[in-house]
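I hope you will forgive my troubling you with a question about protein structure. Could you please explain, in whatever detail you think fit, how the structure tokens follow from the sequence? Thank you for your consideration; the sequence and its tokens are set out here.
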Amino acid sequence: MPKVRAGSITLNYDQQGNGEPLVLIPYLAADYACYAFQVPDYSKHFTCVSVDLRGTGESDKPSGVYSTEMFADDVAALMQAIGIHQAHVYGLSLGAATGIWLAAKYPERVKSLSLHSGWSKSDAYLKTVVQGWQVMARAINSMPEVVIQGIFPWCFTPELYAQKPDYIQALSDFVRSRPKQPVDAFVQESDAVMTHDAEAQLGKIRAPTQITFGRHDMVTSTRFADRLKNGIKHSELHIFEDCSHAPLYENVPAFNEKTLAFLRKHAS
């Protein structure tokens, strides 16, 4: 995978497809490959640039305080470094939180914005959940197992576990196959989740925006939907009724169809 100097750090990224640039920002504890079920469809219409955020994958993992605003600055620097003036920007969960900052701080760089399972400001419930993941990470000292045993149950419905155990196993094997994130890097990255506050940034977003949630999500539930929808002027909202926090895995066909339709509508 190509690497590039972006500001003060080196970031790893993957590029596939042809068409207008589509920058895909991963969620917590994931690397660029987390959108493996989306890129094959998206890359038929867009040049997909999937990023390893700082602290993840093959990107640099400097010590220090991380923030969602910092991640947005990193992605903007990466776009500049590889010659992308403007792109469709897309993220799930932490990727969506980062996308809010990117669209607010660098409006000229964002043609459309896709916010999946996102939120504008962390509340006490979200912070408590993430603190629990941090406790588990320090105790187990293996991020793949933390993701599989501790984070997966927050991302999928009980029905998926009951009906598709082989699929859960395949997703688990996929997680174990990826570069292992150091625990200290996960703590720094998840601290950024807990301190996320982009409430004051929503009104600065000019790009047409798609907002989606899973009906059964508890982590970033539909409790955040009204704030995002009312705060971002040119936005539309969709709820995936049969999904939890990760519709991109739980109902791949419906998720890809709905998200790709939005992206294509706003492509030149």
Observations:
- The CA atoms of residues 199 and 237 lie 18 Å apart.
- The beta strands are 3-6, 9-16, 20-25, 46-51, 87-92, 110-116, 209-214, 235-240.
- The chain has one domain: 3-265.
